[in-house]
Specification:
GO molecular function: carbamate kinase activity
Order of helices and strands: EHEHHEEEHEEEHEEEHEEEEHHEHE
Shape: globular
Structural class: alpha/beta
Catalytic activity: hydrogencarbonate + NH4(+) + ATP = carbamoyl phosphate + ADP + H2O + H(+)
Helix content: 25-40%
Radius of gyration: 20 Å
Protein name: Carbamate kinase
Strand order of the largest sheet: 3-9-2-1-12-16-17-15
Oligomer: single chain
Keywords: Kinase, Transferase
InterPro entries: AceGlu_kinase-like_sf (IPR036393), Asp/Glu/Uridylate_kinase (IPR001048), Carb_kinase (IPR003964)
C-alpha cells in the first residue's frame, strides 16, 4: 500500500448523487452517515470543500413538475432551475447533517452552500450534438407535442423504453462564484458548491454580457475537478461505492489498483478498462487534476472508508509521473 499523503491543507470531496439516495428521507439518512466521514477528514487536519452529484434529485424534481403540469397546469420548470433547486435542498441537508455531527463532537465550524453557476462556451460542439438524457420517458405522441411547443428541444428513442429529451454536456470553463467560495474558505467555512457539476450558463451579449442559464448538464466529475483547481486544492477526493479503481472489473482476473500515474491511467482508459458512464469520467477527471500542478493527487475510494482512504489504507491514487 502506498504511503499516506500526510495532512494536505485543502481537499475537494466529491459525493455521487446516487450515494445520497433517491428520496428526501433516504437522503437525510445517508447524509447523516456521510457527515461522520466528512468530519473525520477535518479532524485529520484537512480543510474541505464538498461537491456532489444530483442526477436522481433533478430527475425527481423534473418528474414532479411534469406530472403537475399535466394534472393541474403548473408551469413547466426547465433544467437550469431544476439544477438550482437540487443544489439548494441537497446543500440544506448536508448543512444540517454536518451541523448535527459537529454538535456531537463539540466543534464550532460553519457550513454554507453556494448555488453555483458554471460558465460554458456557447460554441462548444456539444451544443450541436446533445446526448445526455433527462426527464421522464414519454410516448412518441407526447415527445412530438413537446417538440411542437419547444422546437429548440431534442428528443430521442431510448432503448425501446420510450422517448426522452436529450441535452448537451459542454466542457466547464469557469466557476462564476469562485471568489465567493474562496472568501468563505478563507473564513474557515466548510463550503458546499458546484452541485451536479454546476448550473451551466453562457454570456448573453444581447444583455450586456450577463449570464443566462442553458439547458445542459455539466459532467459532475469535471465540475469537481474545476472546483479543485480553482480552490487551489492539494487533493481531489472522489467518493464512490467501491474501494478501488479496478481493471478487468467483474472478471476472474480483476485487479484492484492502489497507485498509478496519470499516463498509466490514460492508457487504461483509452483501452476501455473503465465503465463509460461510471468509472471512466472519474478517472479522466483524476488525470486532468493530477496533471494540473506538480504534487497534486486524486484519490478514488469508498465513502464508508473515507478516513482510512485519506490515511493511505484504502483507495486508488492517481498522480502525475
Amino acid at each position: 500500500m502506498s504511503k499516506p499523503l500526510g495532512k494536505p491543507d485543502r481537499i475537494v470531496v466529491a459525493l455521487g448523487g446516487n450515494a445520497l439516495g433517491n428520496t428526501p428521507e433516504e437522503q437525510i439518512e445517508r447524509v447523516n452517515n456521510t457527515a461522520k466521514a466528512l468530519l473525520g477528514l477535518i479532524e485529520q487536519g484537512n480543510e474541505i470543500i464538498i461537491t456532489h452529484g444530483n442526477g436522481p434529485q433533478v430527475g425527481m424534481i423534473q418528474n414532479a413538475f411534469a406530472a403537475a403540469h399535466e394534472a393541474i397546469g403548473t408551469p413547466a420548470m426547465d433544467l437550469p432551475e431544476c439544477g438550482a433547486m437540487s443544489q439548494g435542498y441537497i446543500g440544506y441537508h448536508l448543512q444540517q447533517g454536518i451541523g448535527r455531527e459537529m454538535h456531537r463532537r463539540y466543534k464550532r465550524w460553519h457550513a454554507a452552500t453556494v448555488v453555483t453557476q458554471i460558465e460554458c462556451d456557447p460554441d462548444d460542439p456539444a451544443f450541436q450534438n446533445p446526448t445526455k438524457p433527462i426527464g421522464p420517458f414519454l410516448t412518441k405522441e407526447q415527445a412530438d407535442e413537446q417538440k411542437a411547443e419547444h422546437p429548440e428541444m431534442t428528443f430521442v428513442e431510448d432503448s425501446g423504453r420510450g422517448w426522452r429529451r436529450v441535452v448537451a454536456s459542454p466542457e466547464p470553463k469557469k466557476i462564476v462564484e469562485a471568489d465567493s467560495i474562496l472568501n468563505l474558505l478563507d473564513n474557515e467555512f466548510i463550503v458546499i458548491a458546484c452541485g451536479g457539476g454546476g448550473i451551466p450558463v453562457v454570456r448573453d451579449y444581447s444583455d450586456k454580457g450577463c449570464y443566462k442559464g442553458v439547458a445542459a448538464v455539466i459532467d459532475k466529475d469535471l465540475g469537481g475537478e474545476l472546483l479543485a483547481e480553482d480552490c487551489d486544492a492539494d487533493v481531489l477526493f472522489l467518493l464512490t461505492a467501491v474501494e478501488h479503481v479496478a481493471i478487468n472489473f467483474g472478471k476472474p482476473d480483476q485487479k484492484d489498483l492502489e497507485e498509478i500515474t496519470a499516463d498509466e491511467a490514460e492508457k487504461l482508459a483509452d483501452e476501455g478498462q473503465f465503465g463509460k458512464g461510471s468509472m471512466e469520467p472519474k478517472v479522466r477527471a483524476a488525470i486532468k487534476f493530477a496533471r494540473s500542478r506538480k504534487g497534486r493527487v486524486c484519490i478514488i475510494g469508498a465513502l464508508d472508508k473515507a478516513s482510512e482512504t485519506m490515511a493511505g489504507l484504502s483507495g486508488t491514487r492517481i498522480v502525475d509521473a
